[in-house]
Each structure stands twice: as structure tokens, then as C-alpha cells.
Amino acid sequence: MDFSSINPALLIASLMVSATPILLAAIGEAVVEKSGVLNLGVEGMMIVGAVVGFIVAVNTDTPLLGFVCAAIISGIFSIIFGILTQYLKSNQVATGLGLTLVGLGLSALLGRPYEGMKSPTLKALEIPFFSDIPVLGKMLFSHDLMIYFSIFLVTLVWWFLKYTHAGMVLRAVGENHDAAHALGYKVVLVRMLAIMFGGATSGLGGAYISLARVPQWTEGMTAGAGWIALAIVVFASWRPWRVLFGAYIFGGVTVLQLNLQAAGASIPVEYLSMSPYLITIVVLVIISSRGNQGAPASLGRPFHASS
Amino acid sequence: MFKLEKRPEQSQKWIYLSPFLAVLITMISGGILFATLGENPFEAIRIIFWDPLFDPSFASYSRPQLLVKAGPLILIAIGLSFGFKAGVWNIGAEGQYILGAIFGASVALAFYPMESKLIFPLMIIAGALGGFLWGLIPALLKAKLNTNEILVSLMLVYVAESILASVSQGLLKNPDGYGFPGSRNLQNYASAANVEIIANSGMHWGVLFAFITVIFSYIILTKHIQGFNIQLTGQAPRASKFAGVNPTANIVFCLGISGALAGLAGMFEVSGPSGQITIEFNSGYGFTAIIVAFLGRLHPIGIFLSGLLIALTYIGGELAQLMLGLPGASIQLFQGMLLFFLLATDLFANYKVKIGANK
Question: Which residues does chain A have within 8 Å of residue B336's beta carbon, measured at their own beta carbons?
Fold first, then answer.
């Protein structure tokens, strides 16, 4: 076993790469849940984003366009969930599961001709001056655009929820939809927009897996990332900065586990590869044993305006 | 425009009608899907839903497959339906299925090559126990610490897949297998083989178990207090507390029984149709069973029928793959669409739709 092959600077850099798909999906889902909707279809929306992003990027040779299309198509895909749950009043848990199942099937169907191809990847943006700082430069300031964008998105969501009127309306809808409705806010519209935002960021997250982290297309390649994103939202108590923190911790575990595999640690590979999922469970247990503070009060409850 | 009016009670008529409507809409939109893939939609639908049962050249192979596929689906879906009724969401049946198979196969391999009539019953117990224990983890965490059972049960699927990969390359690997991953084939081990009860019917012990489970769950849900408790907890959680329903016992019952049944399904699969533990042993029955449970209205008889229908789409999908070169994933998509349309048509059961009505 040779632990000296694990370079801490590279470890942190690859931690950010590994955490970004989950971060993007989780920050969107946090907004969705803040509006009082539980969308369990994150995994499905991510994999649709992954395949769409991949197809567009390969055909146009423009990864950035792949990301844009992934966000748009996953946003549209999430509208199915929105219509079913918001207009047709279906059960959110079942519909979200359905979205995941359909997404997995749809992506496998679309991606079949692309199996085994390699995608063009985003170039690293070396931030002038900062990227020349020894160690720190490689670690924090030589990433691709999406990583910076994901952090920007967290900031944006934090600012939106905390300081804008629209953000306040969204939180009100999530806390008590009947009261929000009585005040004249359009509950269903707010929730539809939140669902579409969540769809779009999940699509970006998925595309980041197929365009940056791996970068190729294989069936079912999100491998539970969407579910982990859901867990991270709970872990973060629905707060944007904690979502970032949670995603990076999780990314750290994943990367460390892969590094240990590569370094030939004496722990069997199977135990290492199950570790991210086990750690997610442990974290969920710790969080829930303290009580789920911060869960939006109307989360998952159906809304029907009777008047 | 249209307006929704909540029905004071679910419409019984629509509860039974909406699955049929959903199947019909799925067939139509599936036809459109196949047409866009460049296939004749009528031919594709016929190949999926008709030929496996009635075409003389395929039916002799396909008909038994119907029961082989429906057995595990029904068994798992019945278990899930208890929890879904009570608002306990076990979506990790796939993991419980894997653990059941590993436990069952381990018992068989421990006794190999001894022959005894007791081995198969022991395997059944072990399979149920494996799934039960795997289901107990989210159950206890939910009951004691209020941890979200959806996420925990799902995470445990990935853990189970890692365990499966590990044992099929290590602990349970066939010592005479020339180094290939995978266990001994239990079909070649008379005491452990899950054989067909009626030759060439597809009716193996697991299918029989599934049918018995349908009857038992019908009795539990309609005649037994536990069935009442489950429905009460799902429909009125607060009322159920006042009625003295023990929430811990309820959660453990729901997740435990669905785990045990999924474990049984895995055990019957590994000792029967699959024959051995391999890395790719699990094929998604645990997830498809969720669709089966909903399509069957969480009702035992409904699940029985929807299990057969979904099994038909599996076999028909394989046939369509063979005949038309349709990708296997299109069937997965087809099944997912079915769930969507079912959820959508549920609207009619819960709401009255008034078209062009008052403003």
C-alpha cells in the first residue's frame, strides 16, 4: 500500500469535481422542497440531463451547449412531475419515483448509440493570478466553468431565499400553502417554477457527470447521485450553504475512497465502493436523531384550493 | 376550462376503471413512441401483448415465462403494498431481494453436496430472514430515530449490490468455476433446486408462494386488525394514534414483511430461474414491483393481475427486441409511462372534473 501517491492538493481539486453533480442537483432540490414539494425524481432528471448533455456535446463538439440543453430538457422533463402533482393532484412520492424510472428508461433508450464514445470536456479556466499561487492555485482556481457556476448558484439561491420578495413568497408557500393562498399568492405557479428550476439544475448536475467527471455515457451512470442529493438536502436542513458543505463532504468521501482503491489499500474494493452510501445513511441517522429542524411545514402535502 | 371538485369519498367506479384507462393510454402513447422509432405501432403492440401468449411459434416458450416473471413481481409488490398503504415507503426492495438470494444460496452452499429434504425449507427460511433483516434496518431507524426510510432503504440497495459483487467473487464463488465469478449452479443440486411443480408451466415454488401470499394478504387486509391498523395509519395518522396503533410495530411490520417477501423472491430466483449468484443477478424486479403495486391499486387481487400484465410486457419486450430490434430500455420506459398515466387517471377517483363549469 502506498499512501504517498495520494496528493492532498489534487485530492481537494478532485473532491470539488466529484461533489459538483450532487451539489447542482441538491441546491435545486432544496429550492423545490422549500416550496413544499418533495420531488423524488432527482435521479431521473439527472440521468436525462446526463444523456442529453452528452448527445448535444458530442454532436456539436461544444460542451457548454450540452450543459445548456441538459438544463432545458431536464427542466421540461420535470414539468411532467409538476403537472401530475400540482394539477392532477397525484401522490408526490409515487410520481417522483415514476419520474426516476421513466428517466432511467428514456436515457437508456436515447443513449444507446452513444455507448462507449468519449465526450469533449470543458476546459479548465485558469483564473489569472490566483491560479499561479502554489498548491492553492491548482486546488481552487484551476477548475472548469461549471464548478464556479455551481458555487455561484448556491450564492444566488441563498440570496434569493433570504433577501428577495419572491424568495419569501416561495418560503411562505412551502411553510403554509393555505395561508399563502389566502394572501393571494399563486401556490401552484410558484411550485411549478420551483420544480422546473430543480429540474434544470439536476440536468446540469447529470450533464456534469457525463461531460466532466467521467466523461462518457454508460447506462445508469448517475448510480444513485440523485438520491444522495436528496439526502444532502435533509442533511443541510434546507440551507444553501450547508448544501454546499454536505456535497463537498460527500465528494471528499467518494474521492478518498477511489484514491484508496487506486493506492491498493488492503480493504476490499467492494467495501470501499459501498462506503459513500453507508456514510450517507450514518449522516442521515445523526441528523434525524436531532430532529429534522428546518423542514418546510407543507413539505409533500398536496394542495387543493377549495374556493 | 375545467374545474376540480374534491369528492367526499374516492369513487369506487374510478378506482377500478383508471388502471384500464391507464393501460389504454399507455398503449396509444407507446404506439406513438414506436412509430417515432420507425416501427409499425400496431405490429409492435401486437408483438408485446399478443404474440407471447397466442403466437404458435413463441407461446410454448413464452407462456411459462409469464409465471416465472410474474412470481417475484407479485411477491415483492404484495409486500410493498402494506407499507405504501400505511405511508411507509420501502423503495429498497431490490436490496432486500439480493440479500434474500444471498442468504438462501449460502444455506444451500453450506450443505453442498449433502442431499436432504430439509435443505430447501431451510433456504426458504433463510431467504425470508435475509430480506427481513435488510428491511429491518430502515424500519428501526425510522421507528426509533425518525430517519427517512425512503433514502435509507434506497442507499441499502447500493450496499447490497456491493455485497453481491463481493460474495460472487469471493465467499460464494464456485471453487470448480475455473476462476469465473459466480456461485455453483443450484439447479444442478437436487436438494436446493427450485423446480417446476408442473412441468413446462413456469409454475415453480416461488410462484406458488406468490399466489398463497395474495390470498393471505387479502385476509390480513380485510379481516385482520393489522390490516385495519395499516389503512388507518395511512389515511389518518393522528386518528391511528388515538386508536392505540403502535407506530413502531406498524413500521416494523410493513418494512419487515416487505423485506421478507422480497427476500423470498430473491431466494426462489437464485435457486430457480437464475440458478446461481452472479454479479448481475438482480434485474430490477424490486423497482418494477413498485409499478406493479400501484397499478394493482395496492389491492392483493389487483396486484395479482397487474403482476401478470407487467410480466407480459417483460416477455413481449424481449420478443420485440428479438423481432424488431427495439432497445430493451423502451420497455422500461413503457412501464414507467404506465405508472405516470395511472397516477394521472387517479384524478378521476379523487376529484370530480367539471368541464366548462361556473367561474
Answer: 98, 101-102, 104-106
